[in-house]
Amino acid sequence: MAKNSFQRMEDENLNNRSSEQIERVRQNVDGSVSFIQMVGKIIEVYLPRVFDVFVMMGGGKEREDTNVKENQPPSDGGSDDFRRGGGPSSPDFH
Amino acid sequence: MSQGIFIKKTIYFKRNIHSSLGRISNKKLADEELIELYLSKHNSAYFDMLYNRYSTKVFSKCISLLKNEELAQDALQDIFIKIYLNIAKFSGKSKFSTWVYSITYNYCIDFLRKKKKEKNIFSEDIENTAEPIEEVPDKELLEMQVSRLKRVLEEIPIGDKAVLLMKYQDEMSIREISHILSKSESAIKMKIKRAKHKAQKQYKELYNE
Predict the structure, then answer these.
(1) Listed residue (B149, B90, B187) closest to A9, CA to CA
(2) The domain B123-207 is classified under which CATH number: 2.40.400.10, 1.10.10.10, 3.30.390.50, 3.30.160.100?
(3) Which residues of chain B fall below pLDDT 70?
(4) Would the CB atoms of A9 and B142 count as touching at under 8 Å?
(5) Cα(B64)–Cα(B119) distance, rounded to whole angstroms?
(6) CATH 1.10.1740.10-classified regions of chain B
(7) Is the CB of A41 inside 8 Å of chain B's CB atoms?
(8) Domain boundaries in chain A?
């Protein structure tokens, strides 16, 4: 399909653009994106811990593992994950 | 770790990813597929592919609207960070290119509005709709010499230039333009009509034709 004058004007503009400028901006964008990702990950990983620290500083107790059954052997009503969780080995398991 | 070292490491890491994704980039994926892959795999190489596709066009639009290469570079950076932060919100109702260009136009218009401290670049014409104007055939603009068109667009107000670029360069529908500028479809039709009229008038003044 033939291009109209507006599209030909855009083509001319695109041909005159140096790829160096675009590459420079790309590096800046990459840097900013990586920085945002890093901050996001820090918040994701450490923020819940920060709350715990404040609670402990205020005299509260550290959050307990709510999934108690995970830490018990199957014979005590716990799950099979007990072994994967690093519990003591038992002759029953072999 | 300082941001500088982190960025260098990231760039090195990305180069490796680029080579491993060479196969994918050779196979032309649709924008929507790239977005889906990027969101599911969180691999920034996919975002880079989108950058490669649109950065030059976005940059060209920024220069054309802002008339300054340095400002356009800053705008390009800000626009792509905006795209990165909002890409998960892209619903696919419009083409990805339309979405990218809408962010570009809105960014440039907001920037110029703040710079000129004008409340609304698009308000003047929409308020004065009573004055009758003649319809200019599309052909007159679409077949104009490129050098002359450039000159004419430099002389008309930025709001008029923006709607003409959206309509004739990006081939957006009236509905899409109205959505981008948050105006009614009838207001946009009138805005385009007036912009064409101004462009024609300017052409006659510049070239005595």
Answers:
(1) B149
(2) 1.10.10.10
(3) 1-27, 117-131, 209
(4) no
(5) 22
(6) 3-116
(7) no
(8) 19-86
Helix (H/G/I), strand (E/B), else coil: A22:
helix
Rounded mean pLDDT of chain B? Answer: 82
**ipTM score assigned to the predicted complex:** 0.75
Which residue of B77, B83, B165 to mutate against A (max A Cβ within 10 Å)?
Answer: B77
Mention the CATH class of domain B3-116: mainly alpha
Comparing CA positions, the residue from B192, B190, B196 lying closest to residue B126 is B190
What pLDDT score does B168 carry?
A: 94
Greatest CA separation for chain A: 83
Suggest the residue from B55, B58, B163, B171 to mutate for an interface test with chain A (most A CBs closer than 10 A).
B55
Tens of pLDDT, residue by residue over B132-182, are 778 888 888 899 999 999 999 999 988 899 999 999 999 999 999 998 888
* pTM, 2 dp: 0.70
CATH 1.10.10.10 residue spans of chain B: 123-207
